[in-house]
Amino acid sequence: MANPNIEVLYNQIFINNNFVNSVSGKTFSTINPANKNKIIDVAEADKSDVDLAVNAAKTAFKPDSEWRKMDASARGKLMYRLSELIDKHKIHLANLESLDNGKPFSDSLLDIDMTVSTLQYYAGFADKIHGKTIPADGPYFAFTKYQPVGVVGQIIPWNYPILMLAWKWGPALAAGCTIVLKPAEQTPLTALHVAALSKEAGFPDGVINVVPGYGPTAGQAIASHHGINKVAFTGSTEVGKLIMEEAAKSNLKRVSLELGGKSPLVIFNDFDVDEAAKIAHDAVFANMGQNCCAGSRTFVQEGIYEKFVEKAASLVSQKKVGDQFDADTQVGPLISEEQYNKVLSMIESGKLEGAKVEAGGCKVGDIGYFVHPTVFSNVTDNMKIAREEIFGPVQQIIKFKTLDEVIKRANDTKYGLAAGVLTNNLDTAMKYMENVNAGSVWVNCYDAINVQCPFGGFKQSGQGREL
């Protein structure tokens, strides 16, 4: 099933249901992070290509177009057909995802399953977008009718490429919008393949457009385009601010932003230490730590702190780091040289500031972007590793005494994406949940993301909600 030599079928820009070269003729290389080898050259979109994609999307959104005249239930059937095609091509897509992103093949399979579920959920939602009648004063009959916003520009990250595509496409297509999507330049391959499947599913010309390219060119063109009515972005807080600025300076387009995090997972003395260590481990190390809502600040109450640290280090020491297509691999490479260097730099800063390395703390080999999963103890709130988003396989274990104290410390961050608490005391769980500033708060579990539940953050973790 796993096949590192999978054939890449699509590497051009997808506009108006056709694959085309870029206007400039330029291309960029996408790289296998396990060995730094080029996979294939991909057509590089810039402003001219975005203009063409937006024009196609605007035409597809005209009042007399096939898409706009289509019954809502028929939109849902198209989306369901696309989900079935993705499921049919699951093995090919999972191989592409692992090759391009570096995540273990088994993880890519799970992402494809979640992608299918997301599109099927929104397929069922398409004909259930209801307005209201309003008993307005006077001799009037008043009602509301939800309308699609129009052309939606979508910019997605490299950590969950195909799943983030589904999170963006699902609600936009269900509402009847048209789409211009820019996948991350590090991971364009699955988006282009799914674009081909959308044509096979029967989506009309111009409804779905995919423009692979770089943020400062293609991404900026989307954020500033006067023909785009909304931009939906998932990525870093720094880039989110730039997109919001461009949206405001252009046509005041609507913006939804799902940005970074430095999420606290708080573990109390009354919770089973073995289970806590496992939940906290998965909260940090899933997807090689490249997860916006990773529970990277692990607060552990002082009564179980030493025992927890020992178990956390033991779990990490058992992780198999290696090639993403090896069936035994649990930790693949990081996405790029830039991310690799950043994570190693953050690990060194932790050592220099006095945190204790309990496991890992180093690179693995000299080929590919592999970093050993790392556990730090004796971490204090002022350390760089406790304040900045690392986006890598690094756990910081921080000691605390009381509930009131840890709530204050958990909230002492510019982020507010997610949080978790592990306790057998209902009062403790409720007080923490009510007072921590986070868009998602998980009790006695972590990262329990479901398509039926909204996802997004407070503060500099963004605005608006996914799903």
Q: What count of helical segments does DSSP give?
A: 15
pLDDT < 50 runs, ≥5 residues: none
Which sequence of strands runs across the widest sheet? Answer: 14-15-16-13-12-17-18
Q: Assign a percent range to the helix content.
A: 25-40%
Give the DSSP E fraction (strand runs of 2 or more residues).
15-25%
Silhouette: globular
CA(first)-CA(last) distance: 31 Å
Question: How are the SSEs ordered, and which strands pair?
Answer:
Layout: E1 13-15, E2 18-20, E3 27-32, E4 37-43, H1 47-60, H2 66-69, H3 72-88, H4 90-101, H5 105-125, E5 133-134, E6 142-143, E7 151-155, H6 161-175, E8 178-182, H7 189-201, E9 208-210, H8 215-224, E10 230-234, H9 237-249, E11 254-258, E12 264-267, H10 273-285, E13 297-301, H11 305-317, H12 337-352, E14 356-359, E15 374-377, H13 384-387, E16 394-400, H14 403-410, E17 418-422, H15 426-435, E18 440-443, E19 462-463
Parallel strand pairs: 7-8, 7-10, 8-9, 10-11, 12-13, 12-17, 13-16, 15-16, 17-18
Antiparallel strand pairs: 1-2, 3-4, 5-6, 11-19, 14-15
Labels describing this entry:
467 residues, alpha/beta, seven-stranded mixed beta sheet, six-stranded mixed beta sheet, 15 helices, 17% strand, globular
